[in-house]
Amino acid sequence: MSKIKCEICGADTHAIEVHIKRDHPEVTLDEYVAKYPDAPLLSEMAKQKLKEQQELKERTAKAARPVTETAHDKKPMHEVFGLGKVAGAMNAAGQPYLVSVTTSEYEDMVPDLDLDYVFELEGLKNVLMAIEMNIPAYVWGHAGTGKTTLIEQVAARTKRPLLRVQHTVNTEEAHVVGQWTARAGETIFELGPLALAMKHGWIYLADEYDFALPAVLAVYQPVLEGKSLVIKEADSLNRIIRPHPNFRFIATGNTNGSGDETSLYQGTSIQNAANYDRFHMVLEMKYMEPELEKQVLINQAKIDKGDAERFVEFANRVREQFSGSKISSPISPRTLIAAATIGYIKGNFRTGLALAWANKLPRMDREVVDGLAQRIFG
Hints:
Layout: E1 4-5, E2 12-13, H1 16-23, H2 29-35, H3 44-64, E3 71-76, H4 77-80, E4 98-103, H5 121-132, E5 137-141, H6 147-158, E6 162-166, H7 173-177, E7 178-183, E8 186-191, H8 193-200, E9 203-207, H9 214-217, H10 221-224, E10 229-230, E11 240-241, E12 248-253, H11 273-276, E13 281-285, H12 290-301, H13 305-323, H14 333-346, H15 349-356, H16 363-377
Parallel strand pairs: 5-12, 5-13, 6-9, 9-12
Antiparallel strand pairs: 1-2, 3-4, 7-8, 10-11
């Protein structure tokens, strides 16, 4: 970029202030401006350098700010989760369990609240224990059993910011920790989702964990141990990310890391046992008890009690057939909700089941499940 001229001596320079201090010490910058009010003081290159220095200063100051604790209020668990005063929400002395409800500056990261969501009490208590005690947890089970939704709704009720990250075979370490990017003509290191969650104190929900390659999941191991994340490729400001006091790590998957025993979840991998050993709580999400699943259908699909009972009976018959290797796929609560919703609109629940689920099955399986549906729904 071209330099500017000094109006005193005609010399080329990028910054008049520097030039007159060196070559015209008898003149102050104020005197120069007064005598040559229309003369430029900085070249375009000098202006750009000054802007970059200011931005670097601001980023450095921001990074140096102390981590602030998010405010917590302790509230009765049965009130926070709308359980009523059930025995399981009380301790041995009959007093309610208390849970932390936060106030965070990252309200936009808190999941949306679903007032119709039905909590299974023991699963809820286990997840709350993991969050309250900062225990890294792994939740696994069949598709549609509500693994991810449970974590999201716990975060929604306790007002904890949450960042959900989907894993695939194409997930790379840079997708997790961050990478160098070009932005506005400047090359900067952009933090990845894990680093952001650790820095700001969010729940990091590592979804479909068993779809990722074991070599990539190794990046999580020191974090699962409660240690800092070291990003070797990052600039000095972002190289070491220390976990915020409110940071939590929860992962979900369809298998327990030892491979897919059902052949339903193509793409999952046998995982490194050392990685899974760092999860200090492992929860298997099974299908709901009939009464709970019935209530979910009533709340979510807006069907009456009798129809909900028939759907749950159908689902459990299908699951028995699957366990006996007579059909190739079970049916999830999520699919039941879709089938009930479509069937209600169509005026025929068998049609709803066909459109939401049965049409995905092999021909022989479709015949079996349609026979079950005909006996139950008529």
